[in-house]
Specification:
The structure holds two protein chains of two kinds. Chain A is mainly α. Helices cover 76% and strands 0% of the residues of chain A. Chain A has a single domain, classed as Sodium/glucose cotransporter (Up-down Bundle), CATH 1.20.1730. In chain A, α4 crosses α13. About 1% of the residues of chain A have low confidence. In chain B, strands 1-2 form a two-stranded antiparallel ribbon. Classes of the chains: A mainly alpha, B mainly alpha.
Chain lengths: 539, 187
């Protein structure tokens, strides 16, 4: 990587930062400081805008760089990820988008607390939302750090640390000054940039193979050294049954976890109606599906054009496959075309990380301020719901402060965890989301007899096992690649806890409900059901 | 609330905005109007254009809520309104239509997805069988997942638009009309 690449990439990235800061300033100039505006951007975005923003929130650097790298190195097995990421949107569309838009105001806990005793439920759901967000956030920060190291040659710890700190500082500025409106516009800009870059690269790959996908696949298989096996599953996740079960566990977490991600849920509150929420999901399914189809072409394209060996040489995890592909497609390392394309891809990858990080920070600051702070501050009964309404401004101030705090926490954790695998952290965030957030949300929306105790148990019954199983897994100890290779307290063989902890979350919710002394509130259930399906009384 | 101005049931906009912040469950679109963002696309245009106009005559609109004016005698609370709406034939029809689409839909795509993931891990021989050129069963199955996701998304959106939206919107206004009386009275 020559100095030209770095300079151009830095210039392009600075332009993106300047544009996003301009958006933030422009938006915050006209702010009123209401909770509606800070958490939900005034609920005035159109379905198309929100669809692009959802796609921007979802298409992280993990999929742009990580998944294409996996496909370039392991062929078909990388595609399994992509399919899970996309199919998950059907769960969101069928069960979550419209109903959550109709029932809630700003967060996941709003939906559940509406028919339960608010305080314990809000604390539980707030805790799990923050946990999921922080895990996801750390994954992005670690990704940003390693991206810098990879793209700008310098593997020095200082450069990585400063990148993580800079990303953290920028995201705090976006979120605390601009709130949801600025975050959404940043997502839209990033989404357009990412899709544009992907379309351009895909077109170049297709032109190179004269539009013949069969030749592309054939060349990729031949250069991989695995032959036809490159185009079939088993290269990465084959082998013993533990590895196979592990992948099935990951597959479940991917498809069920999306519907519980706090930063995805909060996006549905930025549109005026449930109808608009549905249409934004339709937009985002189209955008995300198209994007993932192109990443498959790019992954196999990198295998065919660059070759898996060159990719592996540059980065063992394959994270540089797309930048290398861009360099080669542009005409090679010393050509103008190669330099420009490489710099564009690098800048887009940074923009992607920055935007995703801002979206998650906003969602977690909402969970801290709207759920945790508001519940812990007051110890009186259910009437205090009204008091909270009377002080939305102070809550927004707390949310801005929380964004700073979470930014600091994410920077610290991102520095500590910089050697962890990014894809693993993302898979873990999905697993925790599917275990702790999805069961309680589904029960609250669809189960007549669900009680407060059931809700609290469902959250902790998914959250605690998911985290405990990770601590006991080979990721943390007991193998040479673990976080602590010198000690061995590994009692759970799988890396991803989903296959055990998701059923446990559902089981705990059921158990808590049937052992509950207080019966379910029939009228509250009626209200939730009527509101969720008709939109009556929706904010 | 612009669309409801032209709607026969959309009377009494005033009380609505006055109770807008109340308990966080009243309609707040008034806040949208109060935002003073006239340059912005009217988000309600959507519901007006493709919701009301287009749907007239299509689908079978569910019957209205039958318990029209009983509440005005002041016999119930807000909670009773929701219970009553929940028991109404109109609401049960909306709920039935929703469930009869999403439950089989979920069963189909979830089985298909889990089957795909499990097959990829347990039957690599079958998945690796060539079909045409470099394309094998696994590749077709993966692209098939994309295709079914797109198709089910389209089918869901279409089903909701044609079979549910109209009836749900009717119920929404009915329910809000009924609860508004109590909300205003409590103040």
């Amino acid at each position: 990587m020559t100095g030209h690449h770095q300079a151009l990439a830095l210039v392009l990235f600075s332009v993106f930062v300047a544009i996003t800061l301009a958006i933030t300033t422009w938006v915050s100039r006209r702010r009123h400081g209401s909770a509606e505006e800070f958490y939900a951007g005034g609920r005035l975005f159109s379905p198309m805008e929100n669809g692009f923003a959802i796609a921007g929130d979802y298409m992280s650097a993990a999929s742009f760089l990580g998944v294409t790298g996996l496909i370039a190195l392991f062929g078909y097995d990388g595609m399994l990820y992509v399919v899970g990421f996309l199919v998950a949107w059907l769960v969101v569309l069928f069960f979550v988008a419209e109903l959550v838009r109709n029932c809630g105001r700003f967060t996941l806990a709003d939906v559940i607390a509406a028919r339960m005793r608010a305080r314990p439920v809000r604390i539980a759901a707030g805790m799990s939302s923050v946990t999921v967000s922080v895990l996801y956030l750390v994954a992005q920060m670690v990704g940003a750090g390693s991206l810098v190291a990879l793209l700008f040659g310098g593997t020095s710890t200082a450069a990585r640390a400063w990148t993580v700190i800079a990303v953290g500082a920028l995201m705090v500025i976006y979120v605390s000054l601009g709130g949801m409106r600025a975050t959404t516009w940043i997502q839209i800009v990033k989404s357009v940039l990412l899709l544009g870059g992907t379309i351009a690269l895909t077109a170049l790959v297709l032109v190179r193979f004269h539009g013949n996908l069969d030749t592309l696949l054939h060349t990729a298989a031949e250069r991989s050294g695995h032959g036809e096996a490159f185009l079939a599953p088993g290269l990465k996740y084959g082998g013993n049954w533990t590895a196979r079960t592990d992948f099935i566990s990951l597959g479940l977490a991917l498809v069920l976890g999306t519907a519980g991600l706090p930063h995805i849920l909060s996006r549905f509150y930025t549109v005026p109606t449930a109808r608009a929420a549905r249409r934004s999901v339709v937009w985002s399914v189209g955008l995300i599906g198209g994007f993932y189809l192109m990443t498959i072409v790019l992954g196999f394209g990198a295998a065919a054009v660059v070759g898996p060996n060159a990719v592996r040489e540059s980065n063992a995890a394959g994270n540089t496959a797309v930048p290398l592909l861009a360099l080669k497609l542009g005409g090679g390392a010393n050509s103008t075309g190669g330099t420009v394309l490489f710099a564009v891809v690098a800048a887009i990858a940074f923009a992607t990380i920055l935007a995703v990080v801002a979206g998650i920070t906003l969602a977690s600051s909402a969970a801290v301020a709207h759920d945790l702070y508001a519940s812990l501050r007051r110890r009186c009964g259910p009437r205090s719901e009204r008091r909270r309404q009377s002080a939305p401004r102070s809550e927004v101030a707390v949310a801005r402060a929380a964004a700073v705090g979470i930014g600091g926490l994410a920077i610290a954790l991102g520095l500590l965890a910089r050697d962890l695998n990014v894809a693993f952290l993302v898979g873990l965030a999905f697993a925790v989301s599917a275990s702790a957030n999805l069961p309680v949300l589904m029960y609250a929306l669809f189960w007549r007899s669900f009680t407060t105790r059931g809700a609290v148990w469902a959250v902790y019954g998914g959250l605690v096992p998911a985290l405990a199983l990770v601590v006991l897994s080979p990721v943390v100890s007991g193998s040479p690649e673990s976080l602590f290779p010198s000690v061995d307290f590994q009692y759970f063989p799988l890396q991803n806890p989903g296959i055990v902890s998701i059923p446990l979350g559902f089981l705990a919710g059921w158990l808590g409900t049937v052992t509950s002394v207080e019966p379910a509130d029939e009228a509250k259930h009626a209200e939730t059901e009527v509101r969720s399906l008709t939109g009556a009384g929706a904010v | 609330m612009k669309s409801s101005n032209g709607h026969s049931r959309g009377r009494g906009e005033g009380p609505e905005s006055s109770v807008e912040k109340y308990e966080g469950r009243d309609p707040a679109p008034a806040a949208a109007g109060a935002d003073g963002r006239a340059d912005y696309d009217d988000p309600w245009y959507d519901a007006l254009g493709s919701g009301w106009g287009e749907l007239d005559g299509t689908g079978a609109p569910a019957p209205g809520v039958p318990h029209t004016r009983r509440e005005q005698e002041g016999t119930g609370r807000v909670a009773d309104v929701y219970l009553e709406v929940q028991r109404s034939a109109a609401f049960q029809e909306v709920r039935r239509r929703y469930r009869r689409f999403v439950v089989p839909g979920f069963a189909v795509f979830f089985t298909w997805y889990v089957g795909y993931v499990v097959a990829a891990q347990t039957a690599p021989g079958l998945m690796g069988r060539p079909v045409a050129g470099s394309v094998n069963v696994a590749m077709l199955a993966g692209l098939g997942q994309f295709l079914t996701t797109f198709l089910l998304t389209g089918a869901y959106a279409r089903h909701a638009r044609l079979r549910r939206d109209r009836a749900a919107l009717d119920l929404r206004w009915d329910t809000q009309e009924l609860t508004r009386g109590f909300r205003g009275g409590e103040r």
